[in-house]
Design brief:
402 residues; mainly alpha
Length: 402
């Protein structure tokens, strides 16, 4: 009875906090309406790339001059944009946005935002159905947990594809929980439009569950063949060259390593090095060490699917060379599982746990007010705590789905 009272009080307090965060996100998005109508958001790159494919320009998909011309056709009134907002995703993703080009830019963006909301709702529904502890949380709480999570809100406002990747991650997690490893691999392969956030996760999971590759490999080969057919060998080489050039130049200030919530951000902040071979070599060395630690900690817990997946997700974000705020929406399932895990059979969550869960929601807000905190809070405090928390609370027994 004492625990039940604490649980209700915990949910109520968290609900009030999430309601405040949701209100903040709504107000912030309302202030951006005029900018969104003009085409400032990242949806521009997907819409322009799809238009280029539709107009038979697939062969020059990674030509920045061609991209800039395509973007100016529907978003000419963006004063800060003196060059293309680079489309740096694999060719096959442009096909996903092809149907949107039959609509004007603003209606297409609103339709994509609606679909993002639906995918976010579907991800929550799947988590709720698959995991008993999440199912015990009030539905209103789950909705507020999603709408109050700034990375998810940022992904929707920007028109990014991070919510789609989140949905695919949840599908993969549910499939792994059911023992359907090939289906999980196929779902993750479908997310290769952000390959830097998929490949580390697949590596970590496949070491212990190799059957995942039975679904991952054929879908990967298919998407690779489709991409090659779209742009040809010359286009594929141009894509690699574009990625290297953007990393070298920082994409005109759009790619700043020190601002990224990952190991690269930590190293860049500590050393003051913005890029180059030294930063790359050090980031690779540190990432390899973190991957080995994650594999070691996952080893004894082969049967704990959720532990392995959540730890692998956190590790993936840490070692990813390119991570931005909206990519952290992938942490939403981890936050829900950690919050819901405390029950009558587990220890009462400490005040430190509560504070750090709050930081999980607040940390992205630090950037405009205190940039140095943003650089260190995510990787050093929040993600390190998630590592420690997962190891302390891990249990070989999973809560069966009913």
């Amino acid at each position: 009875m004492k625990w039940a009272r604490f649980g209700r009080r915990k949910e109520l307090t968290a609900g009030v906090f999430l309601l405040a965060m949701t209100f903040s996100n709504v107000v912030s998005s309302g202030k951006l309406v005029s900018f969104l109508r003009s085409g400032y958001q990242d949806f521009t790159i997907f819409y322009a790339a799809a238009r280029m494919v539709r107009n038979g320009q697939s062969s020059v998909l990674y030509d920045l001059s061609a991209q800039y011309q395509a973007q100016r056709e529907f978003a000419p009134n963006v004063p800060i944009r003196r060059a293309a907002l680079p489309y740096n995703h694999p060719p096959f993703e442009a096909l996903l946005f092809l149907p949107f080009t039959f609509l004007p830019y603003v209606p297409a963006y609103l339709l994509w935002a609606l679909l993002n909301g639906m995918m976010l709702a579907a991800a929550l529904a799947l988590l709720r159905r698959q995991f008993g502890e999440i199912r015990n949380l009030p539905l209103a709480f789950l909705i507020l947990a999603a709408t109050g999570f700034l990375p998810a809100a940022s992904a929707v406002i920007q028109g990014q594809d991070s919510i789609l990747l989140l949905f695919l991650f949840v599908v993969a997690l549910a499939a792994l929980e059911k023992g359907n490893d090939p289906a999980a691999g196929a779902a993750l392969a479908a997310g290769l439009f952000k390959f830097h956030l998929v490949l580390p996760l697949v590596f970590l999971l496949a070491v212990r569950r190799w059957r995942l590759l039975l679904g991952f490999a054929p879908i990967t080969a298919l998407l690779g063949a489709v991409s090659l057919a779209m742009v040809g060998w010359h286009g594929a080489v141009s894509y690699v060259q574009l990625l290297l050039r953007l990393e070298e130049t920082g994409a005109g200030g759009a790619i700043v390593g020190a601002d990224m919530p990952n190991l690269r951000g930590i190293i860049s902040s500590l050393t003051g090095v913005r890029g180059g071979p030294f930063l790359l070599a050090l980031a690779i060395a540190c990432s390899a060490a973190v991957l080995l630690i994650a594999l070691w900690r996952m080893g004894p817990m082969r049967d704990s699917v959720r532990f392995a997946f959540v730890l692998a997700t956190v590790t993936t974000i840490l070692v990813s060379y390119h991570t931005l705020t909206y990519d952290l929406s992938l942490l939403l399932p981890s936050a829900l599982l950690l919050f819901a895990a405390a029950g009558p059979e587990s220890s009462r969550p400490s005040q430190a746990d509560t504070i750090l869960l709050v930081l999980l929601y607040l940390a992205p807000l630090f950037e405009p007010f205190w940039p140095r905190v943003n650089q260190f809070c995510w990787p050093v405090v929040v993600l390190t705590w998630l590592f420690w928390k997962l190891d302390r609370d891990r249990s070989p027994e999973s809560v069966p789905a009913s």
